[in-house]
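>> received
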Amino acid sequence: FVFTYHGIDLSTADPGLWVVVYSPDPESYAPTSTQTIAVGCADRSVKSFPPGAFAGALAEQNALRAKASLPPLPDPSTVLHSKPAVAGP
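>> returned
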């Protein structure tokens, strides 16, 4: 799980902004039965994406985040236990 709500005022946020992303880490020792990626939105809804559909959803989310002056989210498949994402300057 990666929490992505930093810089978001949830009381006024666009309901479609992602506040948490679940993406299994391929380096983890826990078995994964599916490669589905799930996101929790500011409106408390949850959306799930199969791997082939996630890239487009991420691009749409980053466009929404840009409108809100928020930094883009990285592709979660690039965030690994051995290579965590780090906040920008």
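>> Residues 6 and 66 are 14 Å apart (CA to CA).
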